Amino acid sequence: MDMIDNDTETLVYSRPNSLTDVSTHYCPGCTHGIAHRLIAEVIDEMNIREKMIGVASVGCSVFAYNYFNFDFVQAPHGRAPAMATGVKRVLPEKVVMTYQGDGDMASIGMAEIVHAATRGENITVFFINNTNYGMTGGQMAPTTLPGQKTTSSQNGRDVETQGYPIRAAELLSQLDGSSYVVRRSLNDPKNIRLAKKAIRMAFEVQLRGLGFSMIEFLSICPTNWGMSASASMTWLENNMIPYYPLGDYKVHPAVAEIKI
Amino acid sequence: MARELMKGNEAVAEAAVRAGVAAYFGYPITPQTELLEYMSRRMPELGRAFVQAESELAAVNMVYGAACTGQRVMSSSSSPGVSLMMEGVSYIAGTELPMVLVDVMRGGPGLGNIAPAQGDYNQIVHGGGHGDYHSIVLAPANVQEAVDFMALAFDLAEKYRSVTVVLMDGMLGQMMEPCELPAMLPMKTEFPDWAVTGAKGRERRFLTSINLNPTQQEITNLRMLNRWAQVEANEIRYREYFMEDAKYAVVAYGSAGRISLSAVRTARAEGIKVGLLRPITLSPFPREAIYQASRKLDGMLVVEMSSGQMLDDVLAATRFTVPTEFCARIGGVVPYPDEVLDSIRNLVKGPLTTEGHPRDRWLKRMAERN
Is this complex scored with an ipTM above 0.85? Predict the structure, then answer.
């Protein structure tokens, strides 16, 4: 900021207030940075930073509380929706979000996410699907695609012995308790704008007391995928979007009426 | 206030309500379920939080979340369910948060049965979850004590930022006894400076148990240990019966302590100079009290509804200097006062020895008995 000469330059892009002024530990090219920034921008725009309580999970986003500039707690592996339930039930006026990866939410935390959704907990879940366990070095996740090579599916995921990927948005959309469940992608400017709009909608749902909201973000993991960031984006487009179609899977009629 | 006839589990629930519990999260499991059922109607009636979770794992993590806000929160369960909760208990301890847990113990290991037992002693008293931490453990011997210990449990949990467990068993949970309930306390209106409540007009706060830097983790663990030293200095509780002139003493807690008291009274009537030392805080354990008492004794008898889990702590407290015998029923079998009385008589009869291990002699007697 100090480098800007206010006489000759106009600041058009700065760090949102809802992000702390530190470097993250995320790998170069990782889309966690995009997701963090979008969430922070929306929180700034809605002026809800002082009402926010975040729940970090276990995985690459374990240190999310270092990067978001609002109150945060850090959950055991998979338990973020349960912890968020505890926070929200005693502080119903606050805005409570979890930030979870695919191993955390769709594997070890499957019971917690399904039951938080089916109870219609008035919380918002941000789900980062990058098809592998990033933090531990790229093992097979519940979202790893058939045939995809990981450090624990070294010949490619064999669905005969290792099962099929879980489509979390579709699964949670089937529950009567969920109000807003969508899948977005962080691969290009258009999709990133759509992702931001969905974040706004999810927080509106919570602020209006309309219940459970979840956004799945198709994300990349260049380090563990062994690709450049741009090749990863192409891989996402060619492989993930066909298996995990983008779209709105559950929009409760009361949510559909919200105009943003 | 008039005494009311109440079932242990329900009395404990109402006592927690009156102690100002803001949120309860639990899961059905016998012989604890009435506590959950009572809360399911009582908490919403008062506008407080109640969730029947999908598992004990979720329940304890709901407690974890709510505890982060500085409110009074609790859960309850029974042995197998408590095992499931141990992940969250360790995280709560590691984050230095107050939490109250009621464990209504049943027979085990495994699914075991739903009869009263004390087999969770090691799990609850000596840790349970992973990592270096201590929990405060209170062991009531009757419904009134269980009621009285609920407010105490919340106070201790908050004072020492500690997990506090009220360790009951299926007998105390299921029995009906007259008890006097405390007055309804007002809800907390002031919250500690670590509570996560939304960063309105202040710096943001975060609560976590992760500490990737081992040196920092060591500092945290030492801080917790120093706080624990304060607990050991200030909070040891036990009760003595007929100990003034006793030459023999029974050491027993909870239901086993209550049954032992009946046996001790009968033995006294027979002229045996026996007393009862009943630990109330199992953690911190009344080591010094037992040691001081033991120095005046000819022999001790430890009575448990587990296979000598507390016995080892008692022997260590006596520094293995006092002849000790052991009497127990396990697996959900509750000892009769007569069995304890026979053990007291046998203790007096001798031979008194500090050789060998009392558990081995007990096991041999159990084999002969069958």
Answer: yes
CATH 1.10.10.1150 fits B239-369, yes or no: no
- Helix (H) or strand (E) holding B283, with range, is strand B281-283
Contacts B23 to A, Cβ<8 Å: 86, 89-90
Residue A54 amino acid letter: G
Domain ranges of chain B: 4-234, 239-369
> Which residues span the domain enclosing A177?
32-135+162-256
- For the domain spanning B4-234, the CATH number is 3.40.50.970
Task: Look at residues B183, B194, B205 and name the one whose alpha carbon lies nearest to residue B1.
Answer: B183
Are A50 and B199 a contacting pair at CB < 8 A? Answer: yes
Is-same-fold flag (B4-234; B239-369)? yes
Q: How many domains does chain A have?
A: 1
Q: What is the distance between the alpha carbons of residues B232 and B28, in angstroms, rounded to a whole number? A: 34
DSSP reduced 3-state for A126: strand
What's the gap in Å between the CA of A147 and the closest CA on chain B? 33
Shortest alpha-carbon distance between residue A257 and chain B (Å): 29
Q: Do A71 and B197 touch (CB under 8 A)?
A: yes
Whether B211 has its CB under 8 Å from any CB of chain A: the answer is: no
Residue A3 resides in a domain: no
Helix H or strand E segment including A214? strand A212-218
- List the pLDDT tens digit at each of the 370 positions of chain B: 689 999 999 999 999 999 999 999 999 999 999 999 999 999 999 999 999 999 999 999 999 999 999 999 999 999 999 999 999 999 999 999 999 999 999 999 999 999 999 999 999 999 889 999 999 999 999 999 999 999 999 999 999 999 999 999 999 999 999 999 999 999 999 999 999 999 999 999 999 999 999 999 999 999 999 999 999 999 999 999 999 999 999 999 999 999 999 999 999 999 999 999 999 999 999 999 999 999 999 999 999 999 999 999 999 999 999 999 999 999 999 999 999 999 999 999 999 999 999 999 999 999 998 7
Sheet holding B299-304, edge to edge: B238-241, B274-279, B248-251, B299-304, B324-328
- Confirm whether A140 is domain-assigned: no
The residues facing B52 across adjacent strands are: B26
What are the backbone dihedrals phi and psi of residue B105, each rounded to the nearest 5 degrees, phi first?
Answer: -65, 145
Amino acid at B214: P
Return d(Cα A243, Cα B129) in angstroms, integer: 40
Q: Which two tokens stand for residue B10?
A: 């329900």
Nearest CA in chain A to B75: A86
**For residues A16 and A14, what is the distance between their CA atoms, to the nearest angstrom?**
6
A112 and B61 in contact by Cβ < 8 A?
A: yes
DSSP, collapsed to helix, strand or coil, labels residue A14 as coil
Based on its alpha-carbon atoms, the radius of gyration of chain B, rounded to whole angstroms, reads 21
Residue A26 belongs to a domain: no
A57: domain CATH number?
3.40.50.970
